[in-house]
Amino acid sequence: MEWLSLLLFFAVCGALLLGYPVALTLAGVSLMFAGIGALFGVFDTSYLLTIPSRLFGIISNTTLIAVPLFVLMGVILERAKIAEDLLTSMSAVLGRYRTGLGVSVILVGMLLAASTGIVGATVVTMGLMSLPTMLKRGYSPSLAAGTICATGTLGQIIPPSIALVLLGDVLSSAYQKAQLDMGIFSPDSVSVGDLFVGALMPGLLLVVMYLLYLWAVSRFSPDQVPKEGQSNEHTSIWPLLGALIPPLVLIVCVLGSILLGYATPTEAASVGAVGALILAAIKKTLTLSTFKYVTTETTKVTSMVFLILIGASLFSLVFRGFGGEDLLKSIFTSLPGGLFTAMLLVMFVIFLLGFILDFIEITFVVVPIVAPILIVMGADPIWLGIMIAVNLQTSFLTPPFGFALFYLRGVASDIVKTEQIYKGVIPFIIIQLILLIIIAIVPSIVTWLPNIVYG
Amino acid sequence: MYLCHNVRTSVVLVFIFYMLLFKNVIVYINRTLGVFVSYATMIMAVLMFSVVLLRYGFNLGWIGLQESITYLHAAVFLLGAAFTFQHDGHVRVDVFYRRFSVRKRAIVDFFGALLFMLPVSIYLFVVCYGYVVESWQLLEGSREPGGLPFVYILKSFLLIFAGSMALQAITELLNQGNKIFDKQLVSS
Amino acid sequence: ANENTSDAGVSNAQSTEVHKWKLVTSWPKNFPGLGSAPERFADYVNEMSAGRLQVTVYGAGELVPGFEVFNAVSSGSAQMGHSGAYYWKGKIPAAPIFSAIPFGMNVTEMNAWLHYGGGMKLWQELYQPFGVVPFAGGSTGVQMAGWFKKEINTLNDLQGLKMRIPGLGGEVLKKVGGLPLTLTGGEIFTSLQTGAIDATEWVGPYNDQTFGLHKVAEYYYTSGWHEPGTLLEFIVNEKALKGLPKDLQKIVEVATRAINQDMLDEYTSENHKAMTQLVDEHSVKLRTLPDDVISALKTATNEVIAEKRAENAAFDKIYAEYDDFYQGVRQYHAKSERAYYLNR
Ligand code: NA
Ligand code: NA
Q1: Are A46 and C78 within 8 A, CB to CB?
Q2: ipTM for the predicted complex
Q3: Where is the TRAP C4-dicarboxylate transport system permease DctM subunit domain (chain A) (predicted)?
Q4: Which of the listed residues A110, A272, A397, C250 has the most CB atoms within 10 Å of its CB?
């Protein structure tokens, strides 16, 4: 009956296209499958009883509290036009390039990604802040949407990153197990910290590749970017600095409080939100109606994100109940010999799974099964972790279950069509795959920094 | 025949009146919940910021304070879900949906509410009921030293969430059914 | 009446029925020690029952989150769980007595109390209202006091110390001026690295080394005053257990008993090797807590326990019996174990 799990996949994909809210479609189709499966005696209904526990797990996950706080920060920055000013100023500073705003979006997005580490929050924040401005300036909707979605997924790889924390957790056990399997009874260790340091260079390299892509677009497909630069808009540097310093101080506070160890990412998010509030108050843009708008928006975006999490939780549960997990296991354990083939196949399958599953499920379901096998075959655990992380980054961009796409769709105005978002992210998916190939060929991009830091 | 028709009409009218009243009450409840939890987002940020300040400024910290933020967080996304639905804030894959006519959209939303939203909400309510009741019976507290002794209230948000979504699904059925019906009248 | 009767030695058709159980745990899949115990349990049961009882093990978060194991077993959504009793403190205030009491019994004494001193009966009574049957599920042995970024020389060094330490130990630390936190395994490393916490306890050298805690904290304190012989638990849904034929019920019971010993053997074998590696290869500075700190922690422990006894009748009753056994066995162990340790 394992094929039913695949049927569930396809049914969900088909149902999603009807356009009913994603979270409820995920949950509804899964529940229907479970019900029908139970009627025919091929689904163990006791799985459905685990939902209260799983929901309570989502509630009590303190890391996720960062989501509403970063959304609040983003909405305030957007409403107070602070982030827009930052983007404008930065694109003015980079004005001699026609892609100045795009470059600024990537750089501001990189800073946000580094400080939030949460794909949803970064996409939502950047979407609210920069999408309208980019369209106003004359960027093609697909390029604007693609840039924002892809920039948002940087939070996945640039530390501190929740994805890397989860992955590090799973990999350390897999590494230990692999060494025990190999007869090493005093095993070495790999930690979340190793992954953080290892992810730094690939993350920055990815930013460089995004920038190169923008340059290439302006060079070879000039109608997708504004006709001219905007260097003539500002003649003096001082107004720019005035606009640049407050938000930069804010971002430095958020990032710095994490990197210097004053706060966890969640706490730093509150520093960001309160800081944004103070900046808005200084700019005198904090009215009662702004206050109401900001809090209501935050509630709606937060509910949207978490209802998807709840729907996905029910979906993955029913998928598991139909033996989908066993199906995956049997695929992965019948891998052909040789690290290269095995790695290629694993990466390909993870990429494909990324279309329908999100990174948490892949991290918890697939990695514990394949990682020990690959490490025994000779894969470096940190390198393997970063390969998986970069690969999983694409899952946020691949339809139909591309969470970055959902989040942008949720905050994008009607001027951007869903197809334009899909079209816009394709080049960025390709860029991420190229990075994957580069890391595969030159593993030292990942390993040299941890080697220096930890000896 | 005429009389019979008239009675039937008045019965239908009374039914519609009560449904509209019911619908408005639900809309009001879910909107109130949404507005209420909206303020919670700002309170969360301020409380969390205080946690950081107290720790670094005064070397103080209370688990209870941190847990109160978790409670507010849960309230925001659970109690705000139906409110968000009222504002069509839940993301859709709208490749086709945005091209649909008003009536076609109403059909999707009607059957979505009937086949997805209502069954899921009812299922969540039923499956969470025992879980929450047990917590109330034990007056379950935190497992943290100095944590809040109100875990049963936190868990109750699950029931309010499922309940408010179920009620919202019913108003959706009424709204979208009405739209389908209206459209038929117009086109016939 | 059917083909099953042809099996030699089987008297009824029911006993060839295959039972499939889900076992949920609070640990990452394959986590050394804690996570390998339930896996071994599943193997044992499968072999001993000739495949009639098949147990599938789920890591934390796979089916339910680690802290929800008890609820899952109680509701019957999983037939079995592997976890630690102190996680259910919010639900059952007396539960921590069955995992660890600061300055309390060590693992040998705990096992003796449970299996021959009446402790198991109290534990079963405590879980009975939830339809859950407990079994001892292994032990880590004496844990370590934890990893600290700065040295602890006086009681003053504990003031405002942000430390990851769950359970009663956390409440004791709070009494002496520290700031206890409970973080899940995955959050510990970064929190310590970024300085969001100043110290953490985890398990012992074998597991701590896996986490790489030596990379972010210099001082390793011995010994685990707060978890002197942490006991883990297998919990079984009562209905599921009673639904098994008698022989399978016995297989479950005996397999938990075997794992209870097996985990301790694994930790005893691996901990000292890991400790040598930590000190010799990673230059970890091994320290013991000063006497005045220990005595302050002891006083605070007594206060915490007195409070718990006043608050909760079940805690009071079970602790009275625990303490009764403890006072007796520690007298003897002072003359036997301790005397021997000093001699060898
Ligand atoms: Na990040
Ligand atoms: Na995807």
Answers
A1: yes
A2: 0.86
A3: 13-445
A4: A272
